[in-house]
Amino acid sequence: MSTHQMKFPVELHPADGRFGCGPSKIRESQIAAISDHALDIMGTSHRQPAVKNVVGGIREGLSQLFQLPEGYEVVLSLGGATAFWDAATFGLIEEKSAHLSFGEFSSKFAQASAKAPWLQQPNITTAPVGTAPSPTELDLSGADVVAWAHNETSTGAMAEVTRPDTDALVVIDATSGAGGLPVDISQTDVYYFSPQKCFASDGGLWLAAMSPRAIERIAKIAASDRFIPAFFDLQTAVDNSRKNQTYNTPAVASLLMLHNQVEWMNDNGGLDGMVARTSANAAALYNWADNRPEVQPFVSDPAARSLVVGTVDFADGVDAAGIAKILRAEGIVDIEPYRKLGRNQLRVGMFPAIDTEDVEKLTQAIDFVLDSGAVSTT
């Protein structure tokens, strides 16, 4: 890679240079929401009305955003999606699960289920990274839970969310998709996510829209003789959520940011409005990649290209890591590829909080670097 210095034009800088895939861009009003409540909520008990009202507002706002069917409930607890995978092995899978595995994160829930000695070995259907398998490919034999990711954050491939022909619970990891991808929640029994992607907050929480069947399954397992650690007890999470609180002490600042973001989403067209924003972001990135000779979208099937996490590959003669390094020095950050994927690639967060004009400026900034010859390896 050439090391010559470039004079980077000011007009190519996005208004906001944060394009990370989690943690993601946080809007200014979310930070202001913390300051606004610094004295009346921050530093007070999470089991008293001030904080419980925030949790209640989040639950009501998410119910509105996802247009939850009758009987569905929003449940939340601490630990993020990683903790939820473990909690599900204790309190949601009765005997056996079936999984679609098509990237780093969709594979991790399958691995957690495989390692749980009280469960039967799961059925795991694996597809190449960069693709999104159909739920029709699942091996449903003996499974009482079927699971996959709505959006594979590591690769930028999104899968359809539709209920297979089974009585098993449908459990969807929506960590990077929830709030930015279209979804019919009635096609799922558990649609769970962390808030540091589309919801532009800090991590450390998991939230889930749960069907009556899922709530019933949780209660059934909780009443059995299975050992369930208190931190992973889904029945405890359900009981506390109904009181608008968490079992363990939450990060109240995260709740305030999440509450503000959910209100902003509902005030700006709800889920349809957010999908319109992410669709425009995705079109800006993929149309550019389709028309730049050195670049191509990593996900070959246009229908599977994520609206919220965009991955683009570069030709062998171009150093993608060099592009990311140059742009980071200019305040355009977190476009490096997923570390374990090992590709000559950039990965771009396109969540609802990110403005399409900034995605367009990003592509123009990459054009400038490419045209300068600063990242040529030939």
Radius of gyration: 21 Å
Category by helix and strand content = alpha/beta
Strand order of the largest sheet: 1-9-8-7-4-2-3
Q: What is the CATH architecture annotation of the largest domain?
A: 3-Layer(aba) Sandwich
Q: How many strands, which pairing sense, and closed or not: the largest β-sheet?
A: 7 strands, mixed
What is the top-level CATH class of the largest domain? Answer: Alpha Beta
Question: Unreliable stretches, pLDDT < 50, 5 or more residues?
Answer: none
Function: Catalyzes the reversible conversion of 3-phosphohydroxypyruvate to phosphoserine and of 3-hydroxy-2-oxo-4-phosphonooxybutanoate to phosphohydroxythreonine.
Family: Belongs to the class-V pyridoxal-phosphate-dependent aminotransferase family. SerC subfamily.
GO molecular function, one term: alanine-glyoxylate transaminase activity
Protein name: Phosphoserine aminotransferase
Descriptive report:
It is a single chain. The protein is α/β, with parallel strands linked by helices. It folds into 2 domains: 15-26 and 270-372, Aspartate Aminotransferase, domain 1, CATH 3.90.1150; 28-267, Aspartate Aminotransferase, domain 2 (3-Layer(aba) Sandwich). The chain is built from 10 helices and 12 strands. It has helices spanning 28-36, 49-65, 80-91, 104-115, 212-222, 234-241, 252-267, 270-291, 320-329, 356-372; strands spanning 73-78, 97-101, 123-126, 145-149, 151-152, 157-158, 169-173, 190-193, 205-210, 295-297, 309-314, 345-349. It has a 7-stranded mixed beta sheet with strand order 1-9-8-7-4-2-3, with helices on both faces. Strands 10-11-12 form a 3-stranded antiparallel beta sheet. The longest helix is centred in the C-terminal third of the chain and has 22 residues, at 270-291. The chain is globular and about 65 Å long. The modification N6-(pyridoxal phosphate)lysine is found at residue 197. Its cofactor is pyridoxal 5'-phosphate.
